[in-house]
Design brief:
The chain is of the alpha+beta class and 967 residues long. 15% of the residues lie in helices and 33% in strands. α9 packs across α10 (796-804). InterPro entries: 6-blade_b-propeller_TolB-like, AB_hydrolase_fold, Peptidase_S9_cat.
Length: 967
């Protein structure tokens, strides 16, 4: 086989100043629990930007909340125990609240003993850092905007009994932040402040249902209004966005039904002396479809104009009540049984007056009732089922929670069902007068077979429920990021390589991209999908334009397709592209071009990332920062012109920055690198040519002890395309898949992560065509020791690993986690986590095959590791768990037994009870340690572990385990 190596190697390293030590100390797996780092993903600035709070501490241990001033060097630290906590500032940036937990060891002990670990709430006054602590807090909320309160709902100290009349409520404390006054409300089940923080809606659920109801408290006047009392449960209080109305559910036991019956409550005109309260069950009104009732899983909400309430309905089951027999009827029935007794008992006939007594002395054996025979425990699978029986069983709970979107017209007391079992949900337009729904039913059977999903699109009138067919058989695999215009007159959608706008009144369709000199078909999506879309960022605030991206550039396109404008300066020629839209205005539902707008960007040549600005009222994107680092999306605080973002590299853990300049010219570092030691010397981007002639890239992460001119043992880690993560930092951890990059680079390994470009009907061969040249290009750098290169992947990467070793011997050792190994047998097996078959995955997703194996036998066999098993010369570990719900366990067994039959060196690790990855920490540790022991043996020459070199004889257990072996 001829390989093409590209001598071009991009020679920048993603390192800054190395840590202050010449010889980094390698990490051990025992070091991970004590590894300390900053939880930068959860760092929270105050709304006025004067404070930043973040949590730090060890991977496993007690944590600290850090409160840092953004204007000076002040920092306050608060121990919070062994559990992470949300960080919440109030609207006025005057208070900070967070949870304090028990210490880490206590929490772990409670988990083993199945005991609860209660939390405290710590409240910090930012003006003087005075601290107040509340015990046993279950939930808390600030009354924001105009409110000066915090509400704290306490845990029930005594566990409640499980019966219908046991109170579910607990104490709710209202704490005034200014004067420190406390007001307690007992037996509160649910509560919510309105947006302004001036009103509190709450429900009471007391023991014996005494005093249950829903109440409204005016926090300014202190006046509490009873809105409704009943021996019922009131829940799911939901204010509208403006805070002028709210809705909730009410449930009440009804003997006619097996479960509680739910009704709606809507409250508006909340500032009036007597707020307006509306109630609706639909059962008494006989409007909701027979057999259905208001769903307990829906969260009702008011329409914007407060004329209707949206909610869901679901099936409810009536109680089967046998008619009660009278005493005379019972006697008559028993007498009849005696009269029809067998002839052998005729001599013992008695008069009617003694029938009951004699029957009690000589009971007769009843005739066998066929209904009482034991029923078979079985399932019928029918080829006409739209969903497999396994899928129906797995998704049973989801189906139970499914509710049909409906609406109640409050003034006319009219019920309208907007959806049904075919049109399962409705996406509302901004005016909430229309919506669109997707009907999958005509295509559901075939889409469950091959994974190619289609739907008919309907425009639905909310007032009447009337549906108008709008788009027939829309292909959803390509994209369905459809959205209504802000004025609700048009719907944007993608079809067959172009974007269209649908006029929702006339249903006319306009191709708005046909005249734009570019393609909106993704060039990197190589699945079996016809013309996949590049993506859209949606409508502009005025409804006149949509923002669309091709493979590199960003376009502003008019809704009628008559004009278009390229907002980026021919980024295609520079291989720059926008990766994300940074919505820094959370109250904006659309993109307001009268404001500054920010986007995340990446340079595809060298994987530099940064931030770009589209200035207000401008059609020209400006690059603000682009560097050898990963720059997170930008975050702007609500009440200040301050911007926050994080920056990380392979050598520097995430650091937090703040800029008060919208151009980000002088950012201030607020949180510095938390790493104790150097884990990697950086990363190198390698460019190479695959055997298919495609120019691709791979990232080579350097070992911490890297010295130029020396070669290093290397782990090749694979999973489709990985190079966009070139500048990411790897945190030491126990991984669910066994491999942790930081642990290997810390221990003297280089790590190679190549991109893979797939050809349809050749997923395995494509891997070989991309990975082998990548390894050769990495060896050509002089960093990788070509005699000591290993390969590892998990899931789809496990498949790629198990296939690669059948086609090449360049790897000295391999580990395949949960690998697919026989495409033919795997094709029709079940993906047990969802209950669906694998057929759709093969034909429209990762499998990248175009038909079933009966019409494509050569491709299935050519790309199945099992059919090339005799070629394997590389030692292999397979990790495959017996409860794997993604890749059937038999795939690992089949490959292991085949290799074992051929006397190939192979070990299979099975963690009993685990699914596709490892969830239990003890198993994560075990697999990680074994994998490194194995690689250390083959790539570093260390002694082989006994479990690899000698095998395990189950019958020859150590003496102290023999007595328990078969318990």
């Amino acid at each position: 086989m001829k390989y093409y190596l590209l001598a071009l190697v991009i020679s920048q390293f993603a390192w800054l100043t190395p840590k202050a030590q010449e010889k980094p100390t390698p990490l051990t797996w025992q070091d991970i629990p004590d590894w300390r780092y900053n939880r930068t993903n959860d760092a929270t600035p105050s709304p006025d930007s004067k404070w930043l709070a973040y949590i730090s501490g060890p991977t496993q241990g007690d944590l600290t909340l850090n409160l840092k001033s953004t204007t000076n060097s002040q920092i306050y630290q608060y121990p919070i125990g062994g559990q992470n906590s949300p960080i919440v500032f109030n609207e006025h940036s005057s208070y900070l609240a967070f949870y304090k937990s028990a210490d880490y060891k206590t929490i772990k002990g409670n988990q083993k003993a199945k005991k609860p670990s209660r939390r405290k709430l710590q409240l910090i006054a930012l003006k003087d850092t005075a601290s107040t602590i509340f015990e046993n807090v279950q939930k808390f909320d600030f009354a924001n905007e105009h409110g000066g309160w915090i509400a704290l709902r306490f845990e029930s100290i005594v566990p409640t009994a499980k019966n219908d009349t046991t109170g579910r409520g607990s104490d709710l404390l209202l704490y005034n932040l200014e004067n420190k006054q406390k007001f307690n409300i007992g037996s509160v089940h649910d509560y919510a402040f309105n947006k302004s923080g001036t009103l509190l809606a709450y429900s009471v659920d007391a023991a014996g249902q005494n005093g249950n109801g829903v109440f409204l408290l005016n926090l300014a006047s202190g006046l509490t209004t009873l809105l409704q009392n009943d021996a019922a449960t009131f829940s799911k209080i939901n204010w509208n966005k403006e805070g002028t109305a709210f809705s909730l559910l009410k449930s009440k036991k009804d003997k006619a039904y097996k479960t509680a019956v739910y009704s709606l409550i809507g409250v508006k005109n909340v500032l009036a002396k007597t707020p307006e309260v509306y109630s609706y069950t639909g059962l008494q009104e006989q409007q909701i479809t027979a057999g259905y009732g208001i769903s307990e899983n829906s969260i009702p909400y008011w329409s914007k104009d407060l004329s209707r309430i949206f909610f869901g309905i679901a099936k409810i089951e009536k109680t089967k009540v046998e008619p009660e027999k009278t005493q005379d009827a019972k006697v008559d029935s028993l007498a009849q049984k005696v009269k029809t007794a067998s002839l052998a008992d005729s001599a013992q006939r008695i008069t009617d007056s003694t029938t009951v007594k004699l029957a009690a002395k000589a009971p007769q054996k009843p005739a066998t009732n066929k209904k009482d025979l034991e029923k078979p425990d079985m399932t019928i699978w029918n080829w006409q089922d739209k969903r497999l029986q396994s899928s129906q069983r797995t998704q049973l709970e989801r189906d139970k929670r499914f509710n049909i979107m409906s609406v109640w017209e409050v003034n006319s007391n009219k019920f309208v069902s907007l959806a049904d079992s075919n049109l399962r949900s409705i996406s509302l337009a901004p005016n909430q007068k229309i919506g669109y729904g997707l009907d999958f039913s005509p295509y559901e059977f075939t889409s469950n077979l091959d994974g190619q999903r289609f739907a008919d699109v309907y425009i639905v009138d909310i007032a009447s429920g009337e549906r108008k067919p709008a788009i027939e058989k829309l292909y959803l695999n390509a994209s369905f990021s459809s959205s209504f215009s802000p004025n609700s007159t048009h719907l944007l959608y993608y079809n067959d390589g172009d974007y269209y706008v649908l006029d929702v009144k006339t249903l006319t369709k306009t191709n708005i991209t046909k005249n734009i000199p570019t393609s909106f078909i993704s060039v990197t999506d190589d699945h079996n999908v016809s013309k996949p879309a590049t993506g859209t960022y949606g409508w502009t605030h005025d409804g006149r334009f949509v923002l669309l991206k091709d493979n590199y550039d960003l376009w502003k396109v008019s809704f009628d397709g008559k004009s278009h404008k390229q907002l980026t300066d021919n980024w295609k020629s520079k291989k720059l592209l926008a990766t994300s839209y940074n919505n820094i205005y959370p109250d904006d539902e659309d993109i307001d071009l009268s404001k500054d707008q920010y986007f995340g960007i990446i340079d595809d040549n060298n994987k530099q990332t940064g931030i770009a600005l589209l200035p207000a009222k401008s059609d020209k994107m400006q690059i603000l920062t682009l560097e050898d680092a990963y720059i997170s999306p930008l975050n702007k605080v609500k009440h200040a012109s301050s911007f926050f973002y994080s920056r990380q590299t392979p050598t520097v853990s995430p650091e937090l920055y703040m800029s008060t300049d919208k151009m980000l010219t002088s950012p201030v570092k607020l949180v510095a690198d938390s790493a104790k030691q150097l884990l990697s010397a950086g990363s190198k981007l390698i460019s190479y040519i695959s055997d298919h002639g495609d120019t691709l890239q791979a990232v080579l992460y350097l070992p911490a002890n890297y010295v130029e001119g020396q070669t290093y043992p290397t782990i090749t880690y694979i999973y489709e395309r990985l190079t966009n993560g070139k500048n990411s930092y790897s945190l030491p951890a126990y991984p669910g898949g066994g491999f942790n990059r930081a642990m290997y680079t810390s221990n003297g390994y280089a790590v190679l992560m190549p991109d893979i470009k797939y050809k349809l009907n050749d997923p395995g061969m494509s891997t070989v065509a991309c990975v082998v040249p990548a390894v050769k290009a990495a060896v050509a750098t002089g960093i990788v020791d070509e005699k000591n290169v290993a390969i590892h992947g998990h899931s789809w990467g496990g498949y790629q690993t198990s296939f690669l070793i059948t086609q090449t011997n360049i790897f000295k050792a391999a580990v395949a986690g949960a690998p697919l190994t026989n495409m033919i047998s795997m094709y029709s097996l079940i993906y047990w986590n969802s209950g669906s078959s694998n057929q759709s995955i093969f034909e429209s997703s990762q499998g990248r095959l175009t038909t079933g194996y009966w019409d494509n036998w050569d491709a299935y066999a050519r790309n199945s590791p099992i059919f090339h098993i005799k070629n394997v010369q590389t030692p292999l570990i397979i990790m495959h768990n017996d409860k794997d719900g993604a890749v059937d366990y038999t795939q690992g067994i089949e490959y292991f037994n085949g290799l074992r039959r051929l006397n190939k060196p192979v070990v299979m690790l099975t963690y009993n009870g685990e699914n596709h990855g490892l969830a239990k920490e003890v198993n994560q540790k075990d697999y990680a340690v074994r994998m490194m022991e194995y690689f250390d043996h083959y790539l570093k020459g260390k002694e082989a572990p006994e479990w690899w070199s000698k095998g395990i004889d189950f019958m020859a257990l150590p003496k102290h385990l023999e007595d328990r072996a078969f318990e």
